[in-house]
């Protein structure tokens, strides 16, 4: 595939006194609202992660609903930074086979742009799948935006990355591709409370589990400190029940985050470290 790296967009907060609800994750949350999503699409976690059976064994989907009991013990499934720690879930050859379902053809240009940005900043290479591939990503147009995390080596064949109604945006597609490459959400990091205040009283009832922390045995940062500008970070209003923020920066409560529509510098460092890229 010949991929082009199209210009990216960073949405900048003009008025720091008025936090906005228009982030990548806000768009995903809206696209994945229960009224819109086909009931056949199950096991969606943290708004857009399709959990496999093995994933469900490694994460806790119980609603913890407070800072003190939001820790989740995970046995070597996540790292402190946010990337999956089992190398079996990585695309170990650094080549990722792809397939574009007919239903997703309208997203072709944005898919190309998202793939192009990732290729331009890492050693990951995307190509069309062939008959000898055991695993590949299939872009589909189903209800909502979602992807499993990492290569689904235990289930040979296609793993679906959905760009349904409301999901056909370069930033959203890159976010889902980072999931498929092995990345979880930034605000789930075990050290997040040093940087982030979760306002539990503003979270929709039954959605508290989306703000759980993880306590992995492997505490490797993989080259990245906490990153509010990560494309994998929720916005300030994620899962809000009352139009009030559910998350604020500890140091700067006026900080708008989750706005970025391209890979942050720390995202790039993390991606290259996880995949052992030797970039100049």
UniProtKB/TrEMBL annotation:
This is Metalloendopeptidase. One of its GO terms (biological process) is proteolysis. Zn(2+) binds at residues 175, 179, 185. It is an enzyme of class 3 (hydrolase). The active site is at residue 176. PROSITE patterns: ASTACIN (PS51864). Its EC number is 3.4.24.-. Its cofactor is Zn(2+). It holds the Pfam family Astacin. Disulfide bonds join 145-167. It comes from the Eukaryota. Binds 1 zinc ion per subunit. Keywords: Disulfide bond, Hydrolase, Metal-binding, Metalloprotease, Protease, Zinc. Residues 82-278 form the Peptidase M12A domain. GO terms for molecular function: metalloendopeptidase activity; zinc ion binding. SMART domains: ZnMc.
């Amino acid at each position: 595939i010949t991929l082009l790296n199209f210009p990216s967009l960073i949405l900048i907060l003009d008025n720091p006194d008025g936090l906005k609800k228009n982030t990548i994750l806000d768009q995903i949350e809206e696209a994945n609202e229960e009224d819109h999503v086909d009931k056949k699409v199950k096991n969606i976690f943290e708004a857009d992660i399709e959990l496999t059976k093995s994933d469900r064994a490694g994460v806790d989907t119980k609603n913890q609903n407070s800072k003190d009991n939001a820790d989740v013990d995970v046995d070597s499934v996540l790292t402190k930074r946010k990337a999956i720690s089992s190398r079996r879930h990585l695309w170990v050859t650094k080549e990722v086979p792809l397939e574009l379902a007919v239903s997703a053809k309208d997203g072709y240009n944005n898919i190309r742009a998202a793939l192009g940005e990732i290729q331009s900043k890492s050693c990951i290479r995307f190509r069309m799948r062939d008959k000898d591939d055991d695993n590949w990503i299939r872009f589909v147009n189903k209800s909502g935006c979602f992807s499993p995390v990492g290569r689904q080596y235990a289930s040979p064949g296609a793993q679906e990355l959905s760009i349904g109604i409301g999901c056909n945006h370069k930033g959203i597609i890159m976010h889902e591709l980072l999931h498929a490459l092995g990345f979880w959400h930034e605000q789930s990091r075990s050290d997040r409370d040093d940087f982030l205040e979760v306002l539990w009283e503003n979270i929709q009832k039954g959605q508290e589990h989306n703000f759980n922390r993880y306590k992995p045995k492997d505490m490797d940062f993989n080259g990245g400190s906490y990153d509010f500008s990560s494309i994998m970070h929720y916005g300030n209003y994620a899962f809000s029940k009352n139009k009030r923020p559910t998350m604020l920066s500890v140091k700067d409560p006026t900080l708008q985050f989750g706005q970025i529509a391209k890979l942050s510098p720390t995202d790039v460092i993390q991606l290259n470290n996880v995949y052992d890229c030797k970039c100049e």
